[in-house]
Amino acid sequence: MNVTTSSNLDITKYNGIIIPCFEGQQPSLETLPQQTATYLKANKFEGKYESNALFSIPLEETLVQYLFVGLGKKEELTVEKAMCAIGSAVKTLSKKELASVAVSFTEIEESILTEHFVLSVVKACSLACYAFDKFMEKEKEKQKIETLTYILSQTHIQAVKKGVSIAEDITLARLLVDEPANLMKPKNVVEVATRVCQKAGIEMKVFEKEEIEKMNMNAFLSVAKGSDEEPRLIVMKYNGNPESDEIVALVGKGLTYDSGGYSIKPTNSMITMKSDMGGSAAVIGAMSAIAKEAPKINVVGIIATCENMISGRAYLPGDVLTSMSGKTIEIVNTDAEGRLTLADAITYAIQKEHATKIVDICTLTGAVVVALGEDYAGVITREDSLWEDIQASAKRATESIWRMPIDKNFEKKNKSTIADIKNSGGRWGGCSSAGAFVGAFTEGKPWIHIDIAGSAYLESEKPYFTAGATGSGVHLLTELVKHWAK
Ligand code: BES
Ligand code: MN
Ligand code: ZN
């Protein structure tokens, strides 16, 4: 899809025109066809939030679709509300097989059009055009929006470009997550990461099974053991500040499929488990976005990718293994596999990459989905200042996060009677005990844990998202890294 801007609305150029309007403020109709006022009246359109009016007006041989969108009262508008209203309008028109669509900002005054506002709305509009329809013969043939034009003053061109750019990296993550597990194996994650790193000029290393064995990453290897697909450790390095010893590690959970292993999942819980590499998709998308923005900071992206399967070689409940850190782990549930892969990936980050700050991102627990639903990612950190950092970043990224607790009691839940730690603290407080397990491998380094099990993958659509992958975390990680670069 092409994105352009224009400072005035030439109605002869588009098949679809979206006009967001405030409640109680007459849309200025000078450049629009005469019939518009009549149609608006017939549709009882008053600009109320979540209301709209869709009608077509003939122009020469064709029909132009007009979609007026209510923004609600001006003083109650937020960036998120604008994203939902305008993004869902784009989603509506994207299904109408129109080649060229305009989104007009002409009814919104300049004082509201901050860089953050324009960037966020443009991002939402780009995300709204996403369709994972490559396996639907009829759908994929349909006309997609070829050109999306924003009607606004040319002073906003940079904001538009930035919105389009971050949406591209979010889309990259969504495509990775939506790809079914029969087509997205660890080796395929490597392929995509390689392509992204080459394009972005990021240094990259991939470790195969033998090298992973040499590093004694037995927690990671145990999870991978049951699968015919070999695990891979992917390391992506963005060196934006060579003079500094500070290195931020972004560690993403990369289970290309999670059957649960011998602690097997029920059928229905298994259906969406291709999405269990949402954390690694977020890291790949963020590394791409970070390289484009070029902040003065060093970042290493780390992904331990594998499949959690059942076979004669699979790990078993009751097993005890020695992780890369030397800590022994009792396996009480083979479905608590993500934390095992993260434990070794974090030890790798500290021992081999000398990471000084650690951020892990993962579809880690069903518990976080029960607690927070699909809107919020659960965040755990021991330091208030880090919570403030990620809160500020979440606001810039328009991603919702909620802080979950961590304390001695959650650490106690993971106590084993035969090993240093066990891999599940049980059902209650599952997001926090899982976080405490991961935190046991961070060696006291500044650490933020982001559980995106709910936000990475939607059961049903949202205003500017279809059901399926969201790319949760891509923008958040990017803003966090930029925040730390300041
Ligand atoms: N990948 C799942 C978590 C998950 C659940 C992601 C739902 C997305 C949607 C994770 O590996 C898992 O199975 N967690 C278990 C942990 C339990 C066995 C301690 C869970 O949450 O049930
Ligand atoms: Mn699992
Ligand atoms: Zn999992």
From TrEMBL:
<keyword id="KW-0031">Aminopeptidase</keyword>
<comment type="similarity">
    <text>Belongs to the peptidase M17 family.</text>
</comment>
<feature type="domain" description="Cytosol aminopeptidase">
    <location>
        <begin position="333"/>
        <end position="340"/>
    </location>
</feature>
<dbReference type="Pfam" id="PF00883">
    <property type="entry name" value="Peptidase_M17"/>
</dbReference>
<dbReference type="GO" id="GO:0005737">
    <property type="term" value="C:cytoplasm"/>
</dbReference>
<keyword id="KW-0963">Cytoplasm</keyword>
<dbReference type="Pfam" id="PF02789">
    <property type="entry name" value="Peptidase_M17_N"/>
</dbReference>
<comment type="function">
    <text>Presumably involved in the processing and regular turnover of intracellular proteins. Catalyzes the removal of unsubstituted N-terminal amino acids from various peptides.</text>
</comment>
<keyword id="KW-0464">Manganese</keyword>
<feature type="active site">
    <location>
        <position position="265"/>
    </location>
</feature>
<feature type="binding site">
    <location>
        <position position="337"/>
    </location>
    <ligand>
        <name>Mn(2+) 1</name>
    </ligand>
</feature>
<dbReference type="InterPro" id="IPR011356">
    <property type="entry name" value="Leucine_aapep/pepB"/>
</dbReference>
<keyword id="KW-0645">Protease</keyword>
<dbReference type="GO" id="GO:0030145">
    <property type="term" value="F:manganese ion binding"/>
</dbReference>
<feature type="binding site">
    <location>
        <position position="258"/>
    </location>
    <ligand>
        <name>Mn(2+) 1</name>
    </ligand>
</feature>
<keyword id="KW-0479">Metal-binding</keyword>
<feature type="active site">
    <location>
        <position position="339"/>
    </location>
</feature>
<feature type="binding site">
    <location>
        <position position="276"/>
    </location>
    <ligand>
        <name>Mn(2+) 2</name>
    </ligand>
</feature>
<dbReference type="InterPro" id="IPR043472">
    <property type="entry name" value="Macro_dom-like"/>
</dbReference>
<dbReference type="GO" id="GO:0006508">
    <property type="term" value="P:proteolysis"/>
</dbReference>
<dbReference type="InterPro" id="IPR023042">
    <property type="entry name" value="Peptidase_M17_leu_NH2_pept"/>
</dbReference>
<feature type="binding site">
    <location>
        <position position="337"/>
    </location>
    <ligand>
        <name>Mn(2+) 2</name>
    </ligand>
</feature>
<dbReference type="InterPro" id="IPR008283">
    <property type="entry name" value="Peptidase_M17_N"/>
</dbReference>
<protein>
    <recommendedName>
        <fullName>Probable cytosol aminopeptidase</fullName>
        <ecNumber>3.4.11.1</ecNumber>
        <ecNumber>3.4.11.10</ecNumber>
    </recommendedName>
</protein>
<dbReference type="GO" id="GO:0070006">
    <property type="term" value="F:metalloaminopeptidase activity"/>
</dbReference>
<feature type="binding site">
    <location>
        <position position="253"/>
    </location>
    <ligand>
        <name>Mn(2+) 2</name>
    </ligand>
</feature>
<feature type="binding site">
    <location>
        <position position="258"/>
    </location>
    <ligand>
        <name>Mn(2+) 2</name>
    </ligand>
</feature>
<dbReference type="InterPro" id="IPR000819">
    <property type="entry name" value="Peptidase_M17_C"/>
</dbReference>
<keyword id="KW-0378">Hydrolase</keyword>
<feature type="binding site">
    <location>
        <position position="335"/>
    </location>
    <ligand>
        <name>Mn(2+) 1</name>
    </ligand>
</feature>
